[in-house]
DNA sequence: TTTT
DNA sequence: TTTT
């Protein structure tokens, strides 16, 4: 039976998205996202930051490349996926990623403006609330 | 600023929960959870299963120990947490876990009955929809 | 700026879906869904049931018509939408509905078999985890 | 069996929270929240705003009274609840509300500063990521 | 490596 | 009635 595998994050990009193109031309964007939590410990405020590896495919990767940047606040919805790989020493390791299915930019209007984009009315419908229509992801 | 780090899963336990008690008596339960996704690939049905490491603390661990079992269908809400550890060879590795904040059992009523529990009206409010009231988790 | 409007429900259908076709042929399915919550009140178990009006459009409505039935357990993801209408006395009233964006059937395999469907391997990828690809909904 | 009834919203307050105290002293805060969605219709950008009635109880209401204000951007998690009431003409009507279980403020640091609060370091752990510990709500 |  |  089918199950549910859903992740909801609101956080800041730790770096600009890194874009790769697979053989066949499929675009893949990836970047780290920080979600911080503040709580009281013995009367002192403590901040705990969790880092997530975000991966975006195809059309979503293109939009990410265009609008997401280090420091931006973003809402991301996706699913968990753990895959194995071999490091340089040939040791098998595992990594868990959040494969994004859609994202929405949060924050001030100026936050949506990028270097390469016009400063007036640059934001399109696709920038906020972009939904991946490619559910035929290769995994 | 604070962010959001939320995971929502519906899946089946791959094993009975494993219960440990830390020095101080704090209970920790852990078990693998499978979420399956079925999709069409070239006209054939393909099932993809993702495995998640679930961790429950304190009161939630106690309830898990009492009611959760291999094969049960459960809804879990929690957050992502990646931690490092050294394997037996002393190699540093990372693992990502879902730290559960509450869970709800899904499925038939008979699914809530366990070996050790009475067969009549055994299910209490705590079994379905248990919420962790210990937000002072040690991480 | 764009926001987030998301609803996640797991519950049982109170009735079979009711299917209508708008002028233009667009299919709309609607049905009530019950989500129950059990809690302790003064030592006694009390069950509280909340009823939700679910609406599905286009392809999702077709799948609902085919597979969803009174009593089935289903996971639904969607968004809130409040609209006004006039009752028979001409009094303006409001109703809040959950416009589903995708759903997944939960429960036993036999629960996925319907009257009109073959009893062997009838379940297709579309039955569980159907995602609405029509984001151009008329509202 | 227990179900899931969960709402996740990110939006702006349409008004300051309105605080009432029930007999017994229980605090209740309520306010409208707007979630906007932008999409393309025939090449033109169209914005659709949905309004939600948010209700917060007890400790959560107190925190809301202290920190939430008209215009603020906030993440809210809660559940749906439909209740009936009689309007001034004695006509029975229904209203659906989102009973918040926790909220997190989003946006710039200056957005967390209120009239009555000191401008330096005013924000405490409670302002972002407040979780309602009173699950014994009166409904 | 983000943000407050 | 919010925000962009």
From TrEMBL, chains A, B, C, D:
Query: Which residue ranges are recorded for the region named Disordered?
Result: 110-139
Q: Which residues form a coiled coil?
A: none
Q: Which Pfam families does the entry mention? A: SSB (PF00436)
Q: Which UniProt keywords apply?
A: DNA-binding
GO function terms (MF aspect): single-stranded DNA binding
From which domain of life does this come?
Answer: Bacteria
Query: Which Gene Ontology cellular-component terms appear in the entry?
Result: nucleoid
Assembly information from the UniProt record: Homotetramer.
This chain's protein is named Single-stranded DNA-binding protein
